[in-house]
Amino acid sequence: MYGKLGGVIQIKMMFLDYLYSLPNATSGLDAIAVQTISAVPWFIPLLMAFTFFLVFLGGIGRQKARSGTADYPMWSVVASLATFLLTLMITMLPITAASRDGVLGSLVVIVVVTIFSGVWLFLDRKVSEV
Amino acid sequence: MGQIKFTMSLIFIALFTVAIIGFAVQFASDNGTSVSLADDPELTNLRGGTEDDLLTFKGEAKETYESIIDSSIETGDTTPSGGQFAITPITVIGIVYNILNVGWLKIFGGDPNFAIFLTAFLGVLGFMIGMYVWKTWRGNPD
Mean pLDDT throughout B44-68? Predict the structure, then answer.
């Protein structure tokens, strides 16, 4: 921060106390992601939950607004698959050894949620539906 | 939903499971990812077990089909036994049980307090199978 006081230029520094180590932004987007995952292990599960509910609730809400009813199992499968693909993309990052078990656990959970959504979908169909 | 639709739904559940796990494992292999679903032994075994169960289903479906076309019904008579309608659907219950059981353990662990939900659900599936077999053989039980 720059300021002029009595003809003399003064430089004031502003310090912020971060609760975590800032990622190195000069190494590319993947490095930011990897360092964020290392610093905040709950980043991936919360990102997955956000993606799932964004698609699930958003899809249900818009379908209900348009047609008056919503296909809950179908939106559950769509949301699960969207989250599943996002998690697969995350596994392509050069994850550190310390974070590997957490990412694998997240991947396993979304695979199981996707399978359970499929069970719900296939048992929900009527004779006239696929 | 009738017996054909119900059986197809259970088979589609098995195929969906194999497809999802297979896609994740192959994705990791093709892209050299740092984390692979193949590192999880339970889901890898579930994929192999489900594929084996589907092969068993194929053999039993063939036997069921042959037993039905070999049977004959005289005019005004009824089939004395519903066995040929029951073989294949009962097999697919076991496939779905394995899928649900592994998934259940992955999310809820081995806590017996939650196991009653899985047990009750499988009981409902078995009840539905029984009713559909009866419906196919003798008529509408609704």
Answer: 87
| A69 found inside a domain | yes
Please name the residue of chain A whose CA is at the shortest distance from the CA of residue B11.
A122
Number of structural domains in chain A: 1
ipTM of the complex: 0.83
- Give the residue among B3, B2, B1, B18 at the shortest CA–CA distance from B88: B3
Whether residues B107 and A112 touch (CB distance < 8 A) is answered with: yes
Residue B80 — pLDDT band, cuts 50, 70, 90?
A: low
pTM: 0.81
A-B CB pairs within 8 A amount to 75
- For residue A60, give its domain range: 28-124
Question: Which residue among B5, B27, B35 sits closest to A95, beta carbon to beta carbon?
Answer: B35
Report if residue A6 sits inside a domain.
no
Closest to B10 in 3D by CA, of A128, A122, A111, A117:
A122
